[in-house]
């Protein structure tokens, strides 16, 4: 079980120290996201790294004013890129969304292993986020991250059912 502790210890962190996260750490986290499995290995996901204060504040507004987004030193925006999925229509969109979600999990786990805190934010106006970032792909998750300024308690999980 010790090898899996990093999975069971991961919690959502929403308060961050004002300390920057260096580029090499972010590169490693992105490499982990890019290493996630994907449908037919087409890797139909993209990542946008946001550091600028004004952009973070605009993303926070697009997410209903969530303070953790504006206050985090870095945000990784995980996007679905259905044009790269190899399929058209709803199926291509579905594959790209799954690719993005699996990558986001790798990003969250890697941040935790490296001593960073992070949280998956899925409640936001997709069109507004895409406009703020000037991107042609669909944002699926905003992941604010940084060095934790809190130690949240892991929440109880529902019992497993088969």
Keywords:
alpha+beta, 4-stranded antiparallel beta sheet, globular, 40% helix, 4 strands, NADH Oxidase, single chain, 162 residues
Brief overview, please?
With 162 residues, the chain is α+β, with helices and mostly antiparallel strands. The chain has helices spanning 5-9, 23-34, 53-62, 67-71, 89-113, 126-133, and strands spanning 45-50, 74-80, 117-118, 138-146.
Query: What would you give as the CATH superfamily?
Result: NADH Oxidase
Topology order in helix (H) and strand (E) letters: HHEHHEHEHE
Low-pLDDT ranges: none
DSSP helical segment count: 6
Main β-sheet, in a few words? 4 strands, antiparallel
The radius of gyration is: 16 Å
Kindly state the mean pLDDT as a whole number? 91
3D shape: globular
CATH topology: NADH Oxidase
Strand content: 5-15%
| N- and C-termini, Cα separation | 22 Å
Structural class: alpha+beta
CATH class: Alpha Beta
Structural features, described:
- A four-stranded antiparallel β-sheet has the order 1-2-4-3, sandwiched between helices.
- The longest helix has 25 residues, at 89-113.
- 35% of the residues are buried.
- 40% of the residues lie in helices and 15% in strands.
- It is α+β, with helices and mostly antiparallel strands.
- It has one domain (21-146): NADH Oxidase.
- It is built from six helices and four strands, in the order ααβααβαβαβ.
- It starts with a helix and ends in a 16-residue tail after the last strand.
